[in-house]
Design a protein that fits this description.
With about 375 residues, the chain is an alpha+beta fold. The protein is built from 8 helices and 18 strands. It starts with a strand and ends with a strand.
Amino acid sequence: MTTRCIPAARLGAIALTLLTLALLAMAQHGTLPYIGGPAPELSLDLLVQAPKEAQARLEALKNKVVTLLFWSPTCENCQAEFPHMIDLINAMPDNRFVFIGVVNAPASEVRAFLQETPIPGWVGIDRDWSMVRDYGAPGTPFAVVINRRGLVAAFTHPSKLTPEALEEVWRGEVPDIPIGTPLGWQPRIWRDAPPIYEMSISPASPTREPIFQNGPMLGARGVPLRDLLAYAYSVPPSRIVSHTFLLDAKYDVTIAPKPGLTTQQAIDANTAALQQLLESVFPIRKRPGVEELDVYLMTTPDGGPPSGLKPSEQSGGASLLKRDDGFVAQGATMLQIAEQLTRELDRPVVDDTNIEGRWDGAFTF
């Protein structure tokens, strides 16, 4: 099987406007923040160090990447991280990036500490621990990165933050850094016994490798929102665009349809339920448009059978399991393989094989 690049192919695009009002309501009702979700409002009591006229509110910081650095003057672990934090802040001098130290200590003590240990950026007092609670900070030091649309992009240890990671956040991506888990937040796990009926979605760790299977249950673990939308609406992932939501954020989804359905009926019911679930959690408006994109065209030599693949004997839905060196397809159509290649190559792959049926095989890169 081969691919070749076609320049400037005109492909339809779907722009998704994901309304944030419902997401903000979730934060207001006590839900801990998660990667891809709205950041809780900043509730600092006082700014002891900041530019004149600075306002520590998300609306005032719109279109900036905000890094919250939770630290304490008496924290020994913080002392070890201050040199890295100082270097990082000094390495990002332009006004696209704002660093806010969040400290629970008397203002006089913090000012005296800053005289001895000058830390650039803003520093604010969280007198009643409200920001610690709202952001689920498990201790100090701890860092939360908020993208320029007010969405949480990372929870991590300050030592893991780099200028490159923050530039990724500026571009609207989930940075490639280890996660620091907020207090009380645990990833969803599979139950031992299958439910009679279930439809659920929950945030997943950004480091989790995606797994997706549909039939007779739909199970997605660590699957980016972009891919969930692509599957639900039968649209290639590369054609999904959003300027208001983090499409790289990962989620776990479980849909168990009512009993008594055939495998194909369950697959169809699961797909319809996935649309309903996504529209309930992320209110979506679809808008058609046109973009010019370079794409790969997937073909086979002389139109023959695909090399390295064999007809699948698997019944039910397809599974595409990502590995470090590629992915394994089981019971997948050529269109599904092309869509997985699109994700792997970060460029649209168009199926031009005209080959039907379902196939098994491994793809390595």
